Each structure stands twice: as C-alpha cells, then as structure tokens.
Amino acid sequence: MARTRTPVVAGWFTEAPESDAAFRLLGTRCAACGAVFFPREDSFCRDPRCAGTELTEVPLSRRGTVWSYTDGRYRPPAPYLSDPAVPWEPYTLLAVELAAERIIVLGQAAPGVTVADLAVGMTVEAVPGVLGEDAETVWTTWHFRPVADPSERETAGGRDGGGRGR
Predict the structure, then answer these.
(1) Which residue of 25, 59, 89, 123 shows the fewest CB atoms closer than 10 Å?
(2) What is the pLDDT of residue 160?
(3) What is the pLDDT of residue 165?
(4) Residue 125: closest CA among 103, 148, 104
C-alpha cells in the first residue's frame, strides 16, 4: 500500500516531490502595505503600523542567503514528540534571508548538510523534505541546501534575493 504524502502544515509550501524546481514556500502579502509574511497570515497584516486585512498568497523566493545556522545535538524535552527507543539524530537548522521579501525564514538543512558545509552569506535554496514517516503517512516539509553554483541566479518571477551576507 502506498503511503500518503501529507504536509506537516497545510498551505505553507507547494507539494512538488517530483521536481525541486517547482517547490516553493508560500507566504502572504498585505495589499495595503506590501509586507510579506511567512508563515502565512490569512486574517490581518502583522505590521503594527498597518490596518490591512486583504492578504494574497505569494510564492516566496526559492533562494536566499544564510543569515545564521546551528546544530541540534540533543533530544528536545516535551512537548517535542520523539521515540526514546530510537537513537537521536543531530540536525542542522538555518535562518535564511530572502532579500526580495525582506524576511528571515527558518528551516532544517537537507539530509547530509552539516554546519561544516555552511557559511554566513552563502546561497541556499528551499527544497522538498521529509520530517518523518509512519506506516500510512510521509510527513513532508521543506529543507535548505547549498547551491552548487551561486552565480546561477533565478530570474524575475523567482528571484533568489541572494548575495547579501551578514
């Protein structure tokens, strides 16, 4: 029996497992002030200076620059769910600046990417990922992975916003 692919949070990203190029994080843009939000906001503008309530879904830039990163080497305490019988696997967490949207997005690094592979200011891209699996479901999410050749920039409609390091 085939397992169902289910996003860990519906509406936060496109489900395109067959193509990394089609994968996008989804945010919302306020029609009144132009502010972009991720995670998405569907009720009101989060900018305290704006009273806007008309928010439109927008695909975010696929590429950005590493703003910060760290590794998680210990099992988090409750309410984090994890099976104590399964050995803990360290993971890498990134804060990525999407310059076009002027926001920072958090996410895990793709499997196999460690802190030794990263540097502040390097270009990374959002790709489909798996958070976990059980007998019936593959829980999907997003990951960030380094871009092999950062000079390969996306064009209008999918700008990377890269190039600004801190």
Answers:
(1) 89
(2) 39
(3) 34
(4) 148
Helix, coil or strand: residue 20: helix
pLDDT, residue 151, reads 64
- For 126, how many CA atoms within 13 A lie in the half-sphere containing its CB? 31
d(CA 92, CA 49) in angstroms, rounded, equals: 35
Number of H helices and E strands in the chain, helices first, is: 0, 9
The Cα 123–Cα 130 span in angstroms is: 22
Mapping DSSP to helix (H, G, I), strand (E, B) and coil, where does residue 116 land?
helix
Sheet containing 55-59: order of strands = 36-37, 26-30, 55-59
Q: What is the DSSP letter of 140?
A: E
Give the model's pLDDT for residue 79: 74
CA distances from 159 to 24, 154, 155 (A): 12, 5, 5
CA distance 131 to 108: 9
Q: Please, are residues 116 and 81 in contact by the beta-carbon 8 Å criterion?
A: no
Give the dihedral sign, CA 99/105/106/112.
negative
